[in-house]
């Protein structure tokens, strides 16, 4: 349902100024701490995704921003105004839930215009605004229908239109696509991103789907056990994960045990590989070395490269446009990698299960992390 029906606030800051400022935010449910010292700045018009597994605190953080679950400590400011203790109705946001939450007894037009009626807008203004929004989400011909007469994807478009009806300064999306089938999710995520860009509304989206976050958000906040593991653009999060948790949760990665060797190398399975490690990892320290499946080179490898590695393909998993290969290093059965081979590569090189090949692990694609206690 639509919450927060106030208009935009006076004295709004410029486009590059901090629009939402969260400081030292914490939330307790009895003895359980759901959020721990959360600090986040968001600019006007940004699309930010809270990404993490179930129970990581992402929905709790969204609900704290909305005022639906009051924080235990810390502050939240929107457009320079401290709203830490303000009720939801004074926070100027629209929200879209996973379950659509449409009024089943109201037509689509009445659902979208519900917040405008509460604001006592004129009938002509409501009619024009509803028509504008339904056209924006591709549902112009559905005004007189009821929610039960629409598909799940159409109902979620109605929920989005309703959330935007009062031109809120914040759009909050709580797992908005998780109840939909795969093809509908793909279409809707493109449509939501397009609408958000056109309107320039500051948006927070909760999701556990990495692909959803990578394709829609300008910045991703990766959360785990109530803390923020990393904040960055989708490319930063994927290519330069700050921790092993981020590396494993966002996309696929092979993490291999090793030992830091000098300032530009690691040792794995008795072999030295070039890799730049973080300054805080001491020489001789136990590490985990990560590489993404698509970063492993096969084409044009001569075997003379510093990080060349003879391997055997022990498994090929067909995934449509590519196959995911399991590679076991020759002479080092504990060194197992996952690589993505395109259909063209498989055809051109005649690769198949059981084949022995030499791959290259580019030094700039290796990510070195301190070894976890259980690693």
Question: How would you describe this structure to a colleague?
Answer:
The protein is of the alpha+beta class and 375 residues long. Helices cover 24% and strands 32% of the residues. The chain contains ten helices and 19 strands. It has helices at residues 58-66, 108-112, 114-118, 123-136, 152-164, 182-199, 210-216, 234-239, 244-249, 343-349, and strands spanning 18-29, 32-43, 47-51, 73-78, 81-82, 93-96, 170-174, 202-207, 219-224, 227-232, 254-261, 265-268, 271-274, 286-291, 308-318, 322-329, 336-342, 356-360, 367-370. A six-stranded mixed sheet has the order 6-7-8-3-9-10, with helices on both faces. The chain has a five-stranded antiparallel sheet with strand order 13-12-11-14-19. Strand 4 and strand 5 (81-82) form a beta hairpin. Helix 4 packs across helix 5. Mean pLDDT is 91; it is low at 1-15.
